[in-house]
Design a protein that fits this description.
The structure is a homodimer.
Chain A (H helix, E strand, L loop, with lengths): L13 H16 L4 H11 L5 E2 H8 L3 H13 L3 E4 L8 E4 L3 H32 L4 H33 L1
Antiparallel strand pairs in A: 1-3, 2-3
Chain A binds a DNA duplex through α4.
Chain lengths: ~170, ~170
DNA sequence: AACTTCGTTCATTTTCATTTGAACAAAAAC
DNA sequence: GTTTTTGTTCAAATGAAAATGAACGAAGTT
């Protein structure tokens, strides 16, 4: 190994490391990359704001990962950028309001899939209408209708979920 | 290339292939392997039951994949095994009731994570109590409490989701 | 009993998303 | 205007998860 560059936050205490791992597992379930879990997790257990270099130092990840992870978390509304004193460097804190987090996830990760799904099903229904064999056409219509209903129901449920998690 | 073994369901029509792709995308969002989407998708657009060999033939996947995929789908309650005539071979049909599908997913994929999460947080709260610095202890307690509440809310919301999708 | 059929298992290969790190740009600081 | 600091980008390396396919066991058939 070569020499450490600056070693901002040397060895993170055990509890912090475990919380980070907790979030790593958590985001894996959501289909997000590990680095995002690490970054959000460390921000979540940190008392003050952290900079990109703090994250790189504490988590032992590359600057590239940290940069991309922070961007994704910003888009999701899971972190906020804060001004620290007069520093040029950007600092971040975790957004810890569950309703807000869920809202961001729904908006960025779920809704787009529902939308594109609806489009695809719509096109398939067009194609199914042109099917010649009547029995087959009827069957396809039933299945595609069902799919459409699934997507509609999904869309209706999302706001309820967000609301229930808010209280 | 060598000779095809039997070529059960040669070229699947365009609509079928597109529905399969639709499900491939769908299960990817849920964090499940592609083969599971292909298998479920083909069963979903098929009028009659299909056997493992039908799936291997139509989808061009290996027997191993098909076997594992079918097992996972059975555990999820997403497919049913049916008897076809007097055949020894096992045949399958897709379960198309959304409520049931969501129920299986929640039971197999979500609940276990919530459970193990609770255990981990519990242990961390024990560790946090033994923290010496009072300010730090207080902060950790706040964050861990919050996490606990997240999990509790998640657990409460799941049945509601399932119910709302049933209608 | 030998043979065939059906399906599972699991060590290896393949695939594909993620991570890395060097090059780069933008904006201060000097 | 040069140098340093801060952060982004993207081609290539890495690694984790999935697919493959050969070997195997369990029934069923002859």
């Amino acid at each position: 190994m070569s020499q450490q560059p600056a070693d901002n936050n040397p060895t993170p205490p055990a509890i912090e490391r475990q919380v980070v791992d907790f979030f790593v597992d958590g985001v894996k379930v959501l289909g997000l990359p590990k680095s995002i879990g690490e970054i959000y997790g460390l921000l979540f257990v940190s008392r003050g704001p952290l900079s990109l270099d703090d994250l790189v130092g504490s988590l032992g990840i590359s600057k590239g990962s940290a940069s991309q992870g922070l961007r994704a978390l910003k888009v999701l509304g899971a972190i906020r950028e804060v001004q620290v004193g007069t520093e040029r460097r950007a600092y971040f804190v975790a957004a810890v309001d569950l309703k807000r987090l869920v809202g961001g996830f729904i908006r960025e990760q779920i809704r787009p899939h529902l939308e594109s799904g609806r489009v695809k099903i719509g096109k398939l229904e067009e194609a199914a209408k042109r099917e010649t064999d009547p029995a087959r056409r009827e069957f396809l219509r039933d299945r595609l209708d069902r799919l459409e209903r699934w997507l509609k129901n999904g869309g209706r449920v999302l706001p309820v979920i967000q609301k229930l998690l808010g209280e």
